[in-house]
Fold these 2 entries.
Entry 1:
Amino acid sequence: MAENRPRCAAEHALAGWHKGATPRDTHRVALPEDSYYRRDLALVHHRGFGFHARACAPGILALLEPVRSREGIVLELGCGSGLLTRELTAAGHRVIATDASPAMLELARSYAPAAEDIRRLVLPGDPLPPADAVVSVGHVLSYLPDEPAIGQALTAIARALRPGGLFAIDICDLEYGQARRDAPNVGLVNDDWAIITQFSLPEPSRFIRQITTFVLNDDGSWRRDDERHHNVLTGTARVPALLAAEGIHVQVASAFGTEQLPAGLRVLIGRRTA
Ligand SMILES: C[S@@+](CC[C@H](N)C(=O)[O-])C[C@H]1O[C@@H](n2cnc3c(N)ncnc32)[C@H](O)[C@@H]1O
């Protein structure tokens, strides 16, 4: 019977990741094609929100230097429009860039054409190709539906790492919500796009962005779109114990290098030790 079968170390760790939750390391979460970052928000992100990937790039490149010198493969998760991908390939890395959003991938194909491959990969269920490094910026794992799904994705990342491999990713801690408890709405206006974001924190571990975009059409009219982004905020201090079972040593840090990251955003740097 299923409940009597022996459980591997990773399953024990996953079970403890979220009290009362069932580990779902074989469960595939099918996202509809247009769940996050449809055409207009993908474009607005690319044009107006590149500062985060660019700020993270120097620290990530320094961490990845040993991987570059042995011409290892860097797997990027949630590459978006290719903002970090392009920094990686410009520095000489071999990159497989992946994302769930077809609109983001289309932008990435033209913005970061030097990547070895740019393909759709939906976390946490799609298989990860083996890699010498896994990188991800823009709290991609925080988009997963719940804590077990985040645990499943972290375990998949650990298992994709070749001997000597490392990962460097950012993720929203519970502190991310505390820091934005009373965050005011934000509006940005540009010549050909505008964005309004409303924030809410219905629970300490759930952060919601209600996003409205306006993008200028060729005929001078404006089109509107609305997306609702749900982020799960997690206790990142638990990650080292979770991934120790996978032979990965994890350091929880406040930055990849010397950059200043938003309050409550944490960096996980993991190295395969076994
Ligand atoms: C805030 S954006 C960051 C994009 C890019 N890394 C950057 O920094 O510009 C988050 C990205 O995560 C992707 N994403 C969300 N859920 C995902 C999932 N389940 N699997 C893979 N990618 C996902 C989105 O499509 C989006 O491109």
Entry 2:
Amino acid sequence: MVYYLLVGSIAFFLVVLVAMLAGFFRRIQRAVAEKTASQNELAQKIDIARDAPGGSAENPIAIETPVLVEAKAEDARCLRCDTPMRVEGHAAKTMAGRPLRVAELRCPRCEARRELYFELMRPS
Ligand SMILES: [Zn+2]
């Protein structure tokens, strides 16, 4: 009698343990899948931002004066967490013979960084 109770409770314990482990592994699998999906999404956003105006030296945002760099750059949002970016600074650079301003942006929330490119339009 005691023997059956013991075997029964060990079997019950094993069933509970297996169910817990299965749930645990399912949760890990789901977390990995979600992480992969969000990384793919981030990679896509980075690609889109690179092709958008200001995303590269080949495709800068046209401005008339460097004073506008900060105002325009602060419209940019973090690709990772969608927080408005902060301008850390901007520097004049000549790239492929074009006078550019490169703004260094940093996300105040997740510390992500990116650059935004501007081209100074000479008044004609
Ligand atoms: Zn962020």
